[in-house]
Amino acid sequence: MLTIRAVPPRDENSLLAAYHGGLRAHWAAPERALSQGLARMGRGGWSPAERMLLSDAVRRSGLSMRDRKGLHRLLNPAAFPFIANPLKNKQLFATVAAQADLPIAPCCDPVAQDLAEWLGRETDIIAKPSFRSKGQGVERYQRQGATWRGAAGPISDGALRARLAELWREGGVIQRRLPTHAALEALSPGALPTLRVVTCLDESGAPEACDLALRLSAGGARPVDNFNAGNLVLGIDTQGTCMAAWRGGAIQPTAHERHPATGERIVGTSVPDLAEAIALALRAHKAFAAGFTVIGWDVGLTRDGPMLIEGNWNPGTDILQLVNGQGVSDTRLGALYRHHLERLPIARWRGAQVVEWDRRGR
Question: For the Alpha-L-glutamate ligase-related protein ATP-grasp domain, which residue ranges apply (predicted)?
Fold first, then answer.
């Protein structure tokens, strides 16, 4: 994968002006020319899907997926290589979280413990490949008597152990599936609902919770709640209750006041353990702050309280702009982006290339 910085000659809002302006000011003429050429070719700015997702008004003050990645790469220098990035390397994430005493799903390390013995105590597990995003490759396995069942059907205990051991060798993680909080069971059938909390270091260097979105499963076989997989995302009002949910996976997202599968009312439902979930995200950023200015946390809302699922070095702003109805440039997160860009070391600007490889290894 690549990070492409396609910089047009003019910017629509103050956030893009801070980001693109810094690149223009520190790049040499050939780099500026290449970047503007890529912009004319349509390699930057809003994608057709984002134009369908977000209104013209939101996009005028917004941040596109393409610009977001290049910006986050500047603000989060520890993102690459992925092998050393605890927000991309899932095994490393589990290690750092455990060392910081952050609550995460119980997991198995087949090198340090007996996988067969661990599985013998479990009835419902999740297997996640590393270096992936948007719920890609996540599998759920449920015990059925002496065997297990996954998305592809029954699988023997021995075959499952072999599959999980291979997943681990490739950097994945093996976890107990966490039960959904009772208040949200009818609103997220099939997958644990997660609260996306975007934290950013403030002017004093302390983590601040800048934005929220709640993700719910729309139902179906996949054990994920990602918007791009056809699930639901919604904003949370000042009273801590759910707003209308947007369903993804189609050309044009649709708004729902009730769950499309269960019929349960979404709007007005209180989000359980909201303050505790936000506090957990702030604690987590302190543990992962080295090299990361902004992080998007996925906090699972479980029967046993909030649990840290993962952190994202390049958190999506599309769902935030959708549920809030405003572009990032006009938000507190946008203000902190500008604050950090204005203070970025010159060497970081000069090291930002027009086209960069997303290195996995060293």
Answer: 87-329
